[in-house]
Amino acid sequence: MTALDTTNHHSTILVVEDEKYVRESLTAYLDDIGYRVLEAENGQTGLELFRSQRPDIVMTDLRMPIMDGFSLVEAIRAETEFTPIVVVSGVGAIDEAVRAMRLGAWDYLSKPIVNLEELQITLERSLERARTKYELERLRRHLSDGTLDDETAFSSIITASPRMRTLFLYLESVSPSRQPVLITGETGTGKELIARAVHTLSGVRGPFVAINLAGLDDVMFSDTLFGHQRGAYTGADRAREGLIRQASGGTLFLDEIGDLSPGSQVKLLRLLQEGEYLPLGADKVQKSGARIVAATHSDLKAKMEQGAFRPDLYYRLYSHRVELPPLRDRSEDLPLLADYFLKKSAILLGKMPPVAPVELFRYLAAYRFPGNIRELEALIHDAVARSVSRNLSLESIVAAIGSDLRSPVALAQVESPCKVCPFAKKFPTLKETEEFLVTEAMTLAGSNQRLAATYLGITRQALNKRLSRADP
Predict the structure, then answer these.
(1) Are 384 and 394 in contact (CB under 8 A)?
(2) Helix, strand or coil for residue 240?
(3) Which pLDDT value is given to residue 10?
(4) What integer best gives the mean pLDDT of the chain?
(5) For the chain, what is the radius of gyration of the CA atoms?
(6) Which of 102, 48, 95 shows the shortest CA–CA distance to 73?
(7) Model confidence over 155-214: pLDDT tens digits?
(8) Backbone phi, then psi, for 228, in 5-degree steps?
(9) What are residue 19's phi and psi, to 5 degrees?
(10) Which residues, in sequence order, are CB contacts of 71 under 8 Å at separation 6+?
């Protein structure tokens, strides 16, 4: 199975037609609309060209000498199920078209072809179907065997999470597509790292160009992305090349796409649908050669339902979509990330990496991390900067986290199921209730009094007094 080029600007089409005038006319038209055209005057020559050139799509007449179109369809389909075949049958010869479709053709046109727009739409529709079929098969294969073809593409993402691994498999499957990729997730979850991985996996040779769209009005959006001609507006004393042009042949990463104004949404939709844009002050439409990857922390569906985001743009962006899990749902990654940031911060600060106490990971696992990985890095960096001994000081981390912890019940469900309440058969006394809660909090905190006190909503000193009273 080979990758498919599904845009007519680069696709190769094999035209098999025994009538020279018809073949040359089709070739001229297809060449004009952007196809690379291969010609064959019969099915045998067409099959040889197919095997040597592997075109993206085949268009063939049915009635030909040496090898007819039926035999050609059957031969190609025996070798691959992914190459679309469009057959051309005589007017009224529906039975021939039906026979060819049963052999494996995907679509048909009536001869003579007079509606060139119908021809173009039929070819593009077949290529789009081929792309979808190819990507679904690639995704199925990846998910079934669980192996990545290119592990290095995700080397900058530190994780041991099975959920993240599943996302990697999906992204590797869809990255060769030219369709947009939408990355959603909370702030600080690593959306740009994922976008760079998609860029690497896409195999494009152009650069990775990133822009944050938050705060851009319509004019700034158009000027930044599309550029402008000299004299487009007051102060435009020279032409400006937009980011779309800079990203040609590569990837344009649009961060915080949920913040786009309605006017900018219309312009972006045209870019995604037609691959076209108009620089400010220009009369000639430009073609885009950039792959679009977008990201947002917003709930685009909710914005769409509220009328703040265009439905057509919403569905266009959802061709391929991944949602990155928050750090609190990736607890297995906390030790890996903390160790990485400890070493990174130590290098930046010119220190030896301090030793992290065991309690660090209990605090991190108990915290909600609203800022996700970015917040974890900031916490670790600050702690390393404040440490004056070989051991990492937890004071700044404890102060930053405060009482903003995950529910003790929820944490217990993750780490160890809560014991059954011992008060099922009788109403407890205050002393019994207090002793039970103190014991549970200490168990949950791994005997760390400071963390247990945070769970109970009291000071460490108050907890210490209660523990002292409980000692025989």
Answers:
(1) no
(2) strand
(3) 65
(4) 84
(5) 31
(6) 102
(7) 999 998 989 988 998 898 888 878 899 999 999 999 999 999 999 998 888 999 999 999
(8) -150, 160
(9) -85, 115
(10) 43
Please identify which residue in the block is written with the tokens 């990201």: 295
Write the CB contacts of 224 (distance below 8 Å, at least 6 apart in sequence).
211, 216, 242, 243
Number of CB atoms found within 10 A of residue 44's CB: 18
Name which of 267, 183, 253 is nearest 219 in CA terms.
Answer: 267
Map tokens 């909370």 to a residue: 186
Give me 308's structure tokens: 């703040």
Q: What one-letter code names the amino acid at 164? A: M
Longest dimension (CA), the chain: 105
Tokens of 293: 């990857």
Which uninterrupted H or E stretch holds 323? strand 320-323
Distance CA 75, CA 78 (A): 5
* Domains contained in the chain, CATH given: 12-133 (3.40.50.2300), 146-325 (3.40.50.300), 335-364+371-404 (1.10.8), 407-472 (1.10.10)
How buried is 213 (Cβ within 10 angstroms: 0-12 exposed, 13-18 middle, 19+ buried)?
buried
